[in-house]
Amino acid sequence: MNITALTLSAAAQVKASSAVPLVITATRSGWKLVTRYEKLSLQERAGLAVAHEWHKAFGRSGDDATFLPFQFEVYCIQPAGKGPALAEQLRQLGLLQSYQGRYWLSPAGLNLVNAVLAEQLHADEQAAVMAVQHGSN
């Protein structure tokens, strides 16, 4: 997702109305809004992926989809003892929610993951169409 606005106030309005977390960056021609995902570090992306896997495995079946930050260490995203720092970082970005030391994917985090997955699916579909078109010539 890549949106351009001429003014900062217009960009802020788009950001505020979007269900997908966006980040505003300055460009020569105005202001560009990109998904929060594009601005995440690799560790943050990996942490979001772990939270999404927990959501898929447990959240939809009505089970407890919360997890301890230790999971980031189990999946080798963070070194031993550093899982809580990543969990808190993702919570501060609004991508996770927490209660009493347990974390789960926030609605904004879920919307972001779904938007990224939809964008990737669209890109894959376009690549497949192009491959078929070029293969038939």
Q: Please give the radius of gyration in angstroms.
A: 18 Å
Structural class: alpha+beta
Domain count: 2
**Uncertain regions spanning at least 5 consecutive residues:** none
Element-by-element helix/strand order: EHEEHHHHEEH
Distance between the termini: 32 Å
DSSP strand (E) fraction?
A: 15-25%
Shape: globular
| Helical content (DSSP H or I, runs of 4+) | 55-70%
Helical segment count: 6
Strand order of the largest sheet: 1-3-2
Compute the number of strand runs: 5
What does the main sheet amount to? Answer: 3 strands, antiparallel
Provide mean pLDDT, rounded: 88
Question: Mind explaining what this structure looks like?
Answer:
The chain is of the alpha+beta class. The protein folds into two domains: 2-39, no CATH class; 42-105. The chain contains six helices and five strands; from the N terminus they run βαββααααββα. The protein has helices spanning 8-17, 36-39, 42-59, 70-74, 83-92, 107-135; strands at residues 2-5, 22-27, 30-35, 96-99, 102-105. It has a three-stranded antiparallel β-sheet. Helix 3 (42-59) packs across helix 5. The radius of gyration is 18 Å and the shape is globular. The model has no long low-confidence stretch (mean pLDDT 88).
What's the gist of this structure?
With 137 residues, the protein is α+β, with helices and mostly antiparallel strands. The chain is built from six helices and five strands, in the order βαββααααββα.
